[in-house]
């Protein structure tokens, strides 16, 4: 039986420095378990993690939205540079998000907290490759599930009107539109985000990382900005849809159904590539406003 080293050590057998993959995440996992075990074992933890990640991201983008009209250095990254996010937009979307959380999310989380025993934590951290593969795998599965749900809820008129039309009230989305959803859509999204890591038998650290990543990229899809660090700029070959393509979906709702990757829309013939954004000059903006 071969004993895996827990820290980086010289692997004499092949003459290279072999850094045990597990050793990279084990100190982080040990620290979390030793200092926050009670919090991590609570069934409420994933919900609090997901909601707080969303609020931090939305706060960042909303501050950008409020500064953009007077700060050209921010406005140049806006997808629609003549668009202004108003306090009324913020109030309406925040009100529905708060309503959904108070009425559905938190009661479901508390019910789970009452009925489910605290989750046992494994002693070992995942290897780096299992961690990364888990996050990518969950993202691929979630992307396919939402693609099918989304296509169906656009193709069947009753489903669209009853459950999805609400999300399309905004043709030019901003970050708070991410969770401007009907309770049915929010339930599906929350269910897949929770079930996919279980389905793929991921470590809980991987599951939480996937939740954070999922909230990050969903919010980025709706943020209304084409920042240099956006996922569609980091992932090559146009494999990632991202903010520009999801913004195009809100303008042409028969296209770009997948939330993250681009391949299902390529295969289904529903992909549209929005025209490249360009920074408008003050003269162009003045002409358009006139
Ligand atoms: Zn959307
Ligand atoms: Zn849609």
From TrEMBL:
Domain (Fatty acid hydroxylase): residue spans on this chain: 136-270
Signal peptide segment: none
Transmembrane segments annotated in the record for this chain: 44-68, 89-115, 127-149
Single GO term (MF): iron ion binding
Keyword vocabulary terms for this entry: Membrane, Transmembrane, Transmembrane helix
Subcellular location(s) per record: Membrane
Top-rank taxon: Eukaryota
Region annotation Disordered: where it falls in the sequence: 271-290
Biological processes annotated in GO: lipid biosynthetic process
GO cellular component, one term: membrane
Main localization category: membrane
PANTHER family: STEROL DESATURASE
Protein name (Swiss-Prot/TrEMBL): Cholesterol 25-hydroxylase-like protein 2
Origin species: Triplophysa rosa
